[in-house]
Amino acid sequence: MHAPRQRRWWHQLKPIVWLWWSMIGVIVLFLLAPIIVVVIGSFSDQAYLVFPPQGLSLRWYVQAVSSRDFRDSTLISLELGVLAALLSTIIGIVTALGIAARQRPAADMLMGLVSAPLLVPGIVVGIAMLFYFTDIGVGSTFASLVLAHTVLTLPYVVRSVLAGLETVDRTVEEAAHSLGASRFSVITTVTLPMIRGSVLAGAVFAFIISFDEVIVTLFLASPRVTTLPVRMYNYIAYTSDPSIAAISTLMIVATVTLVLVIDRYVGFARLF
User: Is 216:124 a contact under the CB 8 Å cutoff?
Assistant: First the structure.
């Protein structure tokens, strides 16, 4: 009696399930389509970006890697990303601990201040930082880029660390306190080891955001200090060859590889 009813119910529901998965597939394809076009177009043998390519070639990868300007900009972006991630991680840990220890509305106010760079349009942030850093004498320098990227990546670290702090067993910290450990010792020997995955995830996201940042960097970069995304932006304004597609593909591969490696040894799924 029940089996026929179950089969009848499944046949009635099956079209809805197929429609649901079809909609998800269309959305995913829509989101991935630009990336697919760039990756495939990077192997074109034509002197301009075309999709689908008429022939396949690695000439644009060779040209991109052999370009001194792109290599120098890549090194600047890597150095900038590492420094910004390091600073934002240190400041983010302290800030997240402060927010977690505060009661509302003080915690909400502090979180709002930290999240301000995410709420204000990038062009407004860029102009404001340009005026401010110029006034204090560090405009259009590498130092100004480090400070700006630290501010931009700080919200990601704070949110990641806060997510980790929510999973911490407070009884362990209380036990350490009862055994005579100071607040600093509890944080360094108990709390941080328990949230090291969240801290690492925040640092990785900070590095990726810093490495890919364009809008604010455009206002602070100079001919002597130009990051890779800004170099690509300026290059594509005057040239339409697939070199940019080749560099974009390399950046995609590097980013995905970095995330997969961190997920393999830390597990992002366990962090939130």
Answer: no
Q: Tell me the three-class secondary structure of 213-271, residue by residue.
A: CCHHHHHHCECCECCHHHHHHHHHCCCCCCHHHHHHHHHHHHHHHHHHHHHHHCCHHHC
Q: Nearest-CA neighbor of 213 among 270, 119, 150?
A: 150
Name residue 225's beta-bridge partners.
Answer: 222
Q: Tokens representing 248?
A: 């974009």
- Locus of tokens 């900009």: 73
Query: 90: burial class by Cβ within 10 Å (0-12, 13-18, 19+)?
Result: middle
Supply the pTM of this predicted model.
Answer: 0.81
Q: What is the mean pLDDT of the chain?
A: 82
Confidence at residue 163, expressed as pLDDT on a 0 to 100 scale: 83
Task: Determine the average pLDDT of the residues in 24-50.
Answer: 83
Question: Which residues 6+ apart lie within 8 Å of 129 measured at CB?
Answer: 144, 148, 151, 216, 219, 220
Q: How far apart are CA 117 and CA 151, in angstroms?
A: 7
3-state secondary structure of 59: helix
Q: CA-CA distance, 258 to 272, in Å (whole number)?
A: 19
Burial class (CB in 10 A: 0-12, 13-18, 19+), 248: buried
Beta-carbon neighbour count of residue 69 at 10 Å? 12
166-211: pLDDT as tens digits: 877 777 767 777 777 777 777 777 777 888 888 888 898 899 899 9
Say which CATH architecture domain 60-270 belongs to.
Orthogonal Bundle (1.10)
**pLDDT, position 272:** 46
The per-residue pLDDT for 268 is: 56
Confidence of residue 1 (pLDDT cuts 50, 70, 90): very low
